[in-house]
């Protein structure tokens, strides 16, 4: 009578692990882990439903033998204005780059998102397609970072704790801003710009440090801004662009085939977010105002101030009169070809020379 031989489970698991390790070693494909800076968790659904799952399943999504150690920037103890610096120092391998917030370190970035330049998603996409190669070249040269794609949170609108139904109502009010271009525009309509990071805004509104703040409807919903405001005004001053960059060192370690796989994965991710962002914006506007069409966010009861056509005209005029000249002066000091490169690409989309 034959006897059945039993092995302890831990021995079987150890043997399986050893076989897998030997197979990986023999194929010359030892697994790599990339350190990744993500979007702030507080920004909401794009981070939660698209970005985080992509990096948590990085090997599967890219088809590469690479894992990702993903951490949102607000959980790392790093300011979102310092992302390019820590990338240049070699501390991380991939960054979910906040464009406006890092434009002080590299003004070229802001050409993706000048105030008033992109009043809708279609225009924003044309600017992005035209201008991203310029940004990529500049970041490679200055920060050893290669851009793999970019996407928008969506139209950045006003949330106020005082009645605001037009730009004229901002006169004398303190408004949270996040880049120099936006601050200059707010000054032009009589408001006092107050630079604050996203995570500081809820408390600043609650305490009266600012009267209004600017962000996307979905981000405002996810972070509870409607709890401390009363009005939303849907004049989209910017699109809040964000980009994915990889350290040039890591990029050059990959074969041509691996680079193509990685690029294809990020292109799909960013294309998916472009579409999702537009859906989120429409839903969040409804949710913030407590409308029945709200499906994805939390219902609040903000007063939804109708968009004034006169304000749309003011914003359009600001592109050539305020946004481009203000930004070009700063950017050309850092990069002498900055505004010329923008006018040859994004500027052509908008008819600005």
From TrEMBL:
First and last residue of the signal peptide: 1-30
CDD domains: PBP2_TRAP_BpDctp6_7
The organism's taxonomic lineage, starting at the top: Bacteria, Pseudomonadati, Pseudomonadota, Betaproteobacteria, Burkholderiales
Alphabetized InterPro entries for the sequence: DctP_fam (IPR018389), TRAP_DctP_sf (IPR038404)
Coiled coil spans: none
One protein family per Pfam: DctP
Top-level lineage group: Bacteria
One of the protein's GO biological processes: transmembrane transport
This protein's record includes keyword Hydrolase: no
Keywords: Signal
Xref: Gene3D superfamilies: Bacterial extracellular solute-binding protein, family 7
PANTHER family reported in the protein's UniProt record: PTHR33376, SIALIC ACID-BINDING PERIPLASMIC PROTEIN SIAP
Name of this protein: ABC transporter substrate-binding protein
